[in-house]
Every structure is written in structure tokens, then in C-alpha cells.
Design brief:
The structure is a homotetramer of 377-residue chains.
Chain A: E1 4-9, H1 13-29, E2 39-45, H2 49-59, E3 63-65, H3 69-72, E4 79-82, H4 89-98, E5 102-105, H5 113-126, E6 130-132, H6 140-150, E7 157-165, H7 182-185, H8 189-205, E8 208-216, E9 221-223, E10 230-232, E11 238-245, E12 250-256, E13 265-272, E14 275-280, E15 286-291, E16 301-305, H9 313-316, H10 326-341, H11 351-369, E17 375-376
Parallel strand pairs in A: 1-2, 1-4, 2-3, 4-5, 5-6, 7-12
Antiparallel strand pairs in A: 7-13, 8-11, 8-17, 9-10, 11-12, 13-14, 14-15, 15-16
Helix pairs in contact in A: 1-10, 4-5, 5-11, 8-11
């Protein structure tokens, strides 16, 4: 098989994560990937050109460009990794899909729900594989949570409690940036981290039927970097919601980008009729499980350390409890996408499901702006 | 000074806790109580009479009766401790207050908001000291959280997240009891444990201005104990709410009596502009604090073990970290009440504040029944 | 039955704990104690007399004295609680036993092994009930650990790891006190906290056969309180040992009174052929259990919160996970002693077993002084 | 600069980790490596040849061989990564060094101390860079612990407590393997995991001066895989030691390969005169720090989540608390080795230091066999 030729656009946090994932996916997964082509790191795009050239050298790409069209329109590119600022996702993804590329795009999909819908439609029309960067859903601990739920380990699910907290906007004295502007950044905490929480909830419980939410901008203005006064923060620092899932389960979500001390707190409690499952990304190699089984005197929450019994952990390390990291999740995500590109099985979340996630966070924002009005999805 | 003569009504979970508190309050607090009278364990009431007699013997009361009127109408009683089923609180408390007694009553105040309001009015009219059994607010760890907040340790508070979970109704196969009937038990999880969460939030942030809530009865019927079929569960197993405090802080509360594995999980995150405070009753001797202070590389959540630096811990034990227990909190509560009875300083939560708490949980129930309508308090 | 008349000597940390235990034991345990007499708080001894008088008032004792002989030689006293500085234990206990009293004495038994042996002999000769204040062995969580071990929950025990750490002597600038002098205080960390660890190990594994140890005085001199220079610290701040139990299990113990941040860290790992049990007093209401049972993917350490399923927790509170405190352990200890006094069943650790514990800590000190020479017990 | 040509021998747990590290080191570290050559994945060795060929394909090596001499004697190889069974380390490493290669070798160095000494001598004679695979010492959390210590964050160190526990030999029914034979495997738990603990201690406190130890084989025989009876386990399942460091600090170590529930528990408490540092590899992204600073009421152990403030975490991820994994540590190790190969700065632990670690574990084994005799190093 000819190797798949990768074009990577963007070299920041997620650009690097994609680059490492492409570099490692075959070495980590080997034969377990099934009959998939090899990978060629073809073209990397960033600006200016000399930065692109340097990052291409570091990441091992053959060619560097500063105009992303040189990737989307290059017939010698099979797959496009999009890791640019969110405002560019729509245009690049649609161009790539129309040019017949498979597209792996970071979350959130787009600045607006309309843009996300266009992307979904373009994906459907193209017939190409798409994948959105919901890396936390690929954690073996989370996969095990899903398996436990499916196996009835906690009975029937009855309540979901989710949280997504970081503190990168907690400091009131941080300067104003483009992140604060709706036109540039779209949603605030909901787009950055809330959508990750939605992806975790969805994988356990399926679609959200309706919700009510509260949003708040805690720090309404921030000092302009040029010292010329203060700029307005247009998007939300926090969001909280009461949700009803289509399967009847009710839940809540609390989300903040201004939660001091939280660095990557993203997790949930899933209450069932026979037990409870807990997960939090800040201890991403642990899953906690309570089951109403055995003598009462011996019941308690179990802390399960992930290991080879929780695939595909064993592809990274044959010894349990030795810890995966955040970049490893991206390799697992990459493997799923690669199998979809090779036509072996669909990957999730694709642009269709990603659009559904966007509907939930935009519904929260809308409800929040409308004093908590119930939004039915 | 003549000792204060105590009449205790009820000998269950809380009856025993009150009895122990009365037995211990002087021994634990000694001179630190200030000029307060001694205590005489005068009369204990339970049914039937021989049970009352036995418990009076065990708890050290001089006299046993089976009709609570013999306490409320006895001129030789100064203070009445009410620990009966909730449905009796109103009648006994009002009788006691009208007879000029000071009243220490377990929470929740009453089955309905109207009953609670009557109790509040009777208390006001009587001029007597009243106290409601919100023991968790007397935890030295919680008192320290309040002090930290007041001292600006986390800056200005911006968000509250509270939870109150137990699992005593988690098992779908538990038989139906009077607890399931509105007429007998009033609210469900909100009355049992939700009101405790309200008391903790109030002590930090003051009154709730408005809220929206969701309530759910997870197990809608339960087997009747006589085997004659299934009885309906009329009150809520879970409640979740989005709240706005009068001071502008927004928050959320999640409450469940069917949360497997949770035995006494009652706590909160308080997010501030400069830090965060965390508390949970299941580790009641620990308080967690994050502060945006000092070098970033050394920032983290601190786990503070309570000790003599957190009064009145030192009255129980001069060594830090040696652990108080739930019954110790009742002794602290008793001391506060005793000082109020002696006219030294008012105690909280009295019947006026207790009624305010009831308004919050009943507002949650009302909003929940009305599809999450906003209720303004 | 005539009530048992209590004489309490000492009113500090442990004096108060004994007083509260005597006040509460019947109220807490009620009928479950079996046919035991009631309690009369007869005489309290402290110095000077007016302090004794005040504490007698606070603790509810009928009479106050300043000479302990007035308790040991009073025919109207049945039981003597000894909570004085350790150097007085021997003389008081022997006087009390010779006078036919039952004796409840705080640990460590005495300053020297010879003194402890005399006490043991006096106890044996008297035929009276004796009890040493090893309160941590009465924790329902620890009792459950013993039960789990006996039931084979972790298979055959193979290794013990114990620790006992506090930080009350961690600060190098603390002034010199009598605690630093061998003649007044006897052993250092070994006597204060090491013996507690020995009591926990013994209850699980029985006698120690031999050991090697290391001891160290971290802060060799301390400022004299009168400013006249520095005084020498004669006893150990830390002790570490490798032990062989008579049943073949091997273990280690690490002990420090200078371990910053540790307030009441006293616990163990017990490794078995089929699992592990963990306990630590700083989270005294939790027991952790790992069992090699069920699917590997679901194995993990369980955190068991103590509750009514772990007797006698339920005597304090009918709801699980609501937390006992350190003073509650003393009530449980008191109940065991009371049953022994009433002749219902022997209590542990009595003076014979207490002497065996002393042999272990003195062996550690001796080995430590002799460069780690093996001491066979 | 010509790229450095890598020869990798072995493709198991550590072989894969080396391969991934070589693949990623430039992409992760980029310019921060300084002026170092690029990497060419030249030759991979495993047996049989077709396995080597497959792994070469997966890991991206140009050539596959089944005889390691084809690597050590190939002038076109600059660096040899040795990840074979321990018994082969000596022969391969010495051959490689004599042929002028730089050598990165997994730990433990060799089966015997003599072999390790030969390796050390060969390294010294060669003048080439050597590195031993003590990956845990490269954790940014551990590096931060070292920095805190050096900066006086906990004052002067006074006591070390270390542990290294896994459960891969806990099951008594596991079959006998070559791991149980001294001749094939050398030491047991000491060689597998004890040496890691030694490496962590050394980095904090320097050389060990003397020690006493206890070793035990818990499961003395195991079923032979061919069903022909039981084979003897010749090396230790557990080791415990009391140590004296040359700087005067005393410490203890407990090590087990049969500690049920422990998957990668490797860590320490470092007690200082002004605070304590705690680390455990099972939560490798957390460091705990207690400092005797500020008001007593606010003191507690801080849990620091590693992030960009703890270099080189930021090379993997710009967001704090997002978690590194075990394989990331190997990339950091690789970077240090690469800089040493390029002559920029020496790397640690090289073969000289690695030999010193071996002396410690062999001293523990020797002391253990000699009833705990003191061994001076």
C-alpha cells in the first residue's frame, strides 16, 4: 500500500500533539491496526515560512508552507490535520473535504453552530473520513467506564454529574486577548473545555434532549495589552447546566475556565441503580467504581489503575499502573482515525457527531443568555 | 446559678446525639463557655414508657415519660430538645415555646413551609432561644473556611458548587416506608440532606435570591413491607439546582439519597478570584485550600488537617490531626445554644434562619415540579 | 448493682479523654455492655488543689484531691484511671493494685522496662483488671482489619509495614523541656507513638521475635527556656526497625516525632498472599483493601468507610460514613475495660500484654544504641 | 551535522520505549536540545529474523538483524540501545564500547557486581557517553523535588523513606520462569525495582555509606510450566533496609515484587528540618510538599500538579496538569543522553554511577543473606 501523505496545519499545543501522533501511531499499534497504509509526513503549514520550515524539520515533515491552501489543494496530500485557531476550522476543513482529503480537526469545530453545520454537510457530501479531536474519549480508563456501564456493572444509569474546570482565565489581571472576543474565539469556557465534557457524557448516555443553563463572565473587562485601557470579555468564564438526556437520565454540568487550582479537571460521576463510576482527567490513569455487591462491611469505592487489561493501554506499556499521558491519548485517537481512513470501521466523533456536541454547548450558551430558558435540542 | 433542666424528646440517632451533647458540653468546654448555668438531665420522652425508662437510665435522665406534653408543660423544664420524626416538630416546638422553654430542634424544621413559618413566628413571639440541628455548620473545618473567606484568602467569591449525597435510598429493592409519603415525611432528599447543604452555603454566601431546579424520583414505587404489592414514592430521590445568591455569586447544588457509595458526602467548592476552598464531610477533619500565591511551580491544593489552631477543636484534643467525629459537632452546637440560652450571644441557625433555609429547599421542590421554572425567594 | 466508683488522676489530654469516656460509656453502649454496674465519678486528682476542684466541677466528679494517695488508698474507690506524666505510672499503678483497685493506665507503661515488669507483676498478683490506653486498637476500622485477616480476605500475611509519625518535635527552635530527659520522660518517639504502632502490629501478627533498629536524635540540643544556653536532648526523635514476627512474617517500622506535616499518622500496610490491607489513623474512618479477586480489569484498592457494619460504630451513629473521632475510641476502650472489671471477658492490652509491647520498643532503643545489633525478644 | 545512527537491540517493553524515544526526541525538544545531530534509525536486532524485520518496520528502522554483533561491529552505527534480558547487558555493552559506540543500556546493569564493574571500566576506557535507563529520575516532578531540596524549601534533609512495590510476583500460583534463577536473572525485586529506588534516593542525598537489610523469598517454589513439579525461586521477593547516607541522613527502603495492588508504586518521603517532600510514581504528575511556613492554621501538604513551571514538561504540553506518561520520561532521558553524546554536558546516571547503584542493591542482598550484617560501601 502507498503510504498516506499527511498535511499538518498549525504547530501549537495541538499541532505538536498531531505531529507526535502521526509519528508514533504505527510504532505503538503495529499489527493491531489491521491492514492500514503507512504514513508519510508530507507537508507542514505555519506562518511565517521560516517558522514552518523549522517546525517541519523538528517534526520530520518533508516540506514546509505558509499558506494552508498549498495543503488542501495539493493532490499529493491524503489527510489534513487541522490545528489552527478555531476561527479557521470551517474554511480549511471544507476546502480539504471538497478536495477529497480525509480531515482530522481539533475541537471545537467552529465559532458558530452554522459553521459547524456546514462542516458536517461538507463531510457527508465528501464521503471522506472525519475526526474531531476529543482526545479524552480515547482514554482507556474512559473506555473501561463505558464497558462497565454496558456490562451492567452499576445497573441502570440514573444520574450524571460532570465538571470541566481549568484556571487559565482565573487571574483577574491577565491581559485581554482575542480569546475574549466572540468574533474571534466564539464561545469561552464552553468551547474550550465544555465540549470535552459533552463528549464524555454523550459516550455514556447518548443525546441530550433538553437543558437549562446559567453562564457568567466573571471578569467582565481585562487590561488591554497596549496599556490603552480595558477591553470587554465577550464570552463566558463559567457555565452550569441541568440536562435531560434522551434516555431519561438527568444530569448536571459545571464548567469554568476560572477555577483556581484546577489544571485539567474534567470528569464525571455516573450514578446507577447498582453502583457508581467516577472519573477525572487529572488522575487520568485511575477509574473509581462502587458496586452494591458482597457484604456491606466490605463495600467501598475501588480505585482501578489502568493497565493492559484496559485496551489499548498494553500497546504503550505491558506493565499496569505505569501511566499513560495526554499525548498518548492522541495516538489512540489517531489510530481510530487511521482505521476509518482505511475503511476498516467508522471513527467517532466524526463531523456529524461533533456537530451534535456543538449543538449542546451552543444550547447552553443560548439558555444562559435567556435567563435559563429551557432549550430543546 | 440554678442548672438548666433539660427535657429530651426522642431517643433515636439524633436523640442520642443530643443526650451525649448535653452530658458533655460542660466537660468539654469548661470555662470557655463563659458564665452559663449547669445542666440537669431532667426528663426524657419516648414511647412506649418502658423504652423511655430504659433510655432515661442509659442517658442519665432523672425521669421518663411517654407523652411529650409532660415535658413541654412541665414548669420544671427550661430547655426542650426535639428529636422526633419531622412531622411532630411544629406542634412540640410551638407548645414548648409558648410554655416559655428554649428549644433545640432537629432539622428539617417541619413538613411544610407553612409549618416552619408558624414555628419561626412562635419563636419570635416567645423571646426564647432557638436552635436548629445543622451540626455540620459547627465543624471547626467549616468555621475555618468561613474565616479564610472573610480574611480574603481566596479573594472575592465567584462561584459555589455544592453536593449532598448519601445512598440510604439507592437500593431499588428497599421496602416502602413512611419516608416515601409527603404527608408523613415532607420532602425527600431535600429535607434529609439538601437543607444541610443550604446551611453550609448560606454561612459562606448569605441568602439565595432565585433558583431553578430539577427533581426526580428514581424509584417510583417500592415493595410494601406486608407483601401486598408496591407503594408509591411521593417525594424526591434527587434534586439539582442552579442558584443565584443575593450577593451576585452563582452556584449549583446536586443532592441525592440514592448515590451508591456516598455515605455522608456533603461539601462544596468555593471559587474565588484568588483561590479555592474545598470541603467534604466524609473527610470532615480536612480542609483544602488553593491560593494564587508564591511561585507558580509551588502552587497546589493544600490539605489542612484541623487542630487546635481551628477552634474549638482544642477543647476536644490538644493534638492536631487526631480527628473529631460527628457527635463532637453536636457538642459544639450545644455549646453555642447554651450560650444563647444564657443570653451571652445569639446562636445560629435559629428558627428565623432555619425558616429561610426551608424556603430554599421548598423553592427547589417547587421549581422542580414546575419544569425548572425560576423561583425568586 | 452498686455503681463502680472512679478515681481519675490527671486532667490533661488523656485525663479529659478518660473523664469523657467514663461519662459516656453507658449512654453510648447501653444494654450491649451486658450486666455491668453503673459508674460514679467519685474523685479527681490534680495539682494544685484549686485546679483539681475546677476540673472536678467541669468533668462532674464529686470530690477533688491533690494527693493521688487519697485515691489509691480510698476504700470507696473501685477503679483508678491513671493519666499522669509517665514517670508516675509505676508508683501509682502498683499502689492502686495493691489496694485492690482495677487500673486503667495510659501508655507507655513506664519509663523503664524494669518498672513495666514490676507493674505487670503487681497486676498479676492483684487479680484485678488492668488496661493500657492503646486507644487506636479499638478503632472499628482496625477491628475490621483484624476480622478480614482472620477470615482470609488477604490470604496468609507475608509482610508488615508500619509507620508512626507526628511533628510535635520537628521544629529545631522549640525550647528544651523535660520530655528531652531520659530520667523524666524515658524513651522519646518510641514511648510516645512507637508503642502505639507496636500495639497495632501485635493485634494483627502477634509477638515479635527479633529485630534490628536505628535510632537518631535529629536535634541534639534545644534552647533552654530560661535563656541560659542549650540543653541536651537525651532521647530519640526517630526510630526505624526491621522486625521478625514469631509467626514468620517480616516487617518494618518507621517512627518519628519530627516528621513535618504528620499530625497523627499511624498506620500500616499488611501484605498477604491474596491481597493487602491499609490503614492510617489520619483517616481513621477509612480502611483500604485490595483483593486478587474477580476480573483483573476490575481490581483495585477499595476504600471502605466505617459504619454500623463495623461494630461498635453503630453504638455511636446508625448512619455509615458519618465519622467517629479520637475521643470515641476511648469510649470503646472504656467499654472493654468495664466488661473486664465486671468479669465478663478479659480486656486487651492488659499490663501483661502492655509489658510485652514495652519490650519491643526498648529492644528497638537498645538495638539502635548498639549500631543495629539484632535483639531477640 | 551527520545524523547519529542508532542500533537498537531488543524490542520488548523497553525496546519499544527506546524506539519511541528516538523517534520523538527531536520533535519534542526541538531547538532546546542545543546543537545536537539528527537521528537515523539504522538497525534493529531481535530474534528470530522475521520478528526483527517486522519490528523494524513498525518502529521505522532501516535494517533488521538477528545477531547483535551486526550492530556492535557495524562502523555505520554510532549509538547502541541495549534492551535485552539483563544477562546480555555486559557482553553487548562492552563490545559496543570497545567498538567506539555510545551506549544507552537498560537497568539493572548486569547480573553481578563484577559484571557491572567491567562495564564501568569499559565505559571509562572508551571515553564514550553511557546512560542507564533510570527513567524515573527524569520525571519533572522528581526534578522539581531536587530543586526544592537544593533551594532549602524543606531545610536540611534528615530522613529518607523509600518504597518500590509491584505485584507481578504476588500470585503464589504463577509458574516458575527464568526470572527465578540467579544465574539467569541475577537479583529479584532488588534488580527489577529496588535499583530504581536507589537511583531516586541518590539523586536527593548522594552516596549510601552503610546499610543493614532483610531479604525474603515469599514463594519459595513455583509450579514448573511443563507440569513436572515445582521449581525453586532463587532470588528475593522482598527486601527491606536501614541505610546511612554519607551525608549523615538515615533512611529506610522497602521493596517488594509481591505487594498485591501495587502496580508502579515507587516513591519516597524526604523529611527535612523545615518541611517534607513526598513523591510516588503511581501519581507521577503530582508532588506533595509541606512547609513550616505561614500561620499554623493554614499549614498542610500541598499537592503540586506538574506543568510548564516544571521543565521540561512544557516541551510535551503547554498546559499544566495535563499529564505526562511513562514513555514521555524515556524521551527526556533520551534527550539528556543525546546532549551527552554531542558533548554538551555529561548525563546521569552513566555507567560509573550505575555501578554505584548496583553496589547498593548487591549490598542489600549480601546483608540480607548474612542475617542483616552491616555492610559498608
Amino acid at each position: 500500500m502507498q503510504p498516506l501523505r499527511i498535511g499538518l496545519i498549525g504547530t501549537g499545543f495541538m499541532g505538536k500533539a498531531h505531529a507526535l501522533a502521526w509519528r508514533n501511531v504505527h510504532s505503538v499499534f503495529g499489527d493491531s491496526l489491521g491492514p492500514v497504509p503507512g504514513i508519510a509526513l508530507a507537508t507542514l503549514c505555519d506562518q511565517p515560512q521560516d517558522k514552518a520550515a523549522q517546525m517541519a524539520r523538528e517534526f520530520g515533515f518533508s516540506r514546509a508552507v505558509s499558506d494552508w491552501c498549498e495543503i488542501t489543494q495539493d493532490p499529493a496530500i491524503d489527510i489534513v490535520s487541522i490545528t489552527t485557531p478555531n476561527g479557521l476550522h470551517r474554511e480549511i476543513a471544507i476546502a480539504a473535504l471538497r478536495a477529497g482529503k480525509h480531515v482530522w480537526c481539533e475541537k471545537p469545530m467552529a465559532l458558530t453552530l452554522e459553521d459547524a453545520a456546514e462542516m458536517r454537510d461538507a463531510a457527508r457530501a465528501s464521503g471522506r473520513a472525519t475526526m474531531l479531536g476529543y482526545n479524552y474519549t480515547h482514554n482507556p480508563a474512559y473506555a473501561h467506564a463505558r464497558r462497565l456501564l454496558a456490562d451492567g456493572a452499576i445497573g441502570r444509569p440514573v444520574q450524571f454529574r460532570g465538571w470541566a474546570d481549568e484556571d487559565y482565565q482565573a487571574d483577574p489581571d491577565l491581559p485581554w486577548t482575542w480569546r475574549a472576543r466572540l468574533e474571534d474565539a466564539g464561545l469561552g469556557a464552553l468551547g474550550d473545555i465544555g465540549c470535552h465534557l459533552v463528549s464524555l457524557a454523550w459516550g455514556l448516555l447518548g443525546p441530550v434532549e433538553s437543558l437549562r443553563a446559567e453562564i457568567q463572565t466573571l471578569h467582565e473587562t481585562r487590561p488591554l495589552p497596549d496599556g490603552s485601557g480595558r477591553g470587554r470579555v465577550e464570552n463566558e468564564d463559567t457555565a452550569s447546566a441541568l440536562l435531560r438526556f434522551a434516555n431519561g437520565v438527568r444530569g448536571s454540568m459545571v464548567i469554568s475556565r476560572a477555577a483556581w487550582g484546577r489544571k485539567s479537571r474534567l470528569g464525571f460521576e455516573l450514578h446507577g441503580t447498582e453502583g457508581m463510576i467516577l472519573f477525572d482527567q487529572e488522575r487520568m490513569n485511575e477509574l473509581r467504581l462502587y458496586q452494591n455487591r458482597g457484604p456491606l462491611a466490605e463495600q467501598g469505592f475501588k480505585t482501578i489503575l489502568t493497565g493492559p487489561a484496559h485496551p489499548p493501554y498494553g500497546r504503550f506499556c505491558p506493565a499496569p499502573g505505569h501511566q499513560l499521558g495526554i499525548n498518548d491519548l492522541k495516538v489512540i485517537e489517531c489510530a481510530a482515525f487511521l482505521r476509518a481512513v482505511a475503511g476498516l470501521e467508522p471513527c467517532q466523533p466524526d463531523f456529524a457527531l461533533g456537530h451534535a456536541f456543538e449543538r449542546v454547548i451552543h444550547a447552553m450558551a443560548e439558555s444562559g443568555r435567556a435567563d435559563g430558558r429551557r432549550i430543546t435540542l
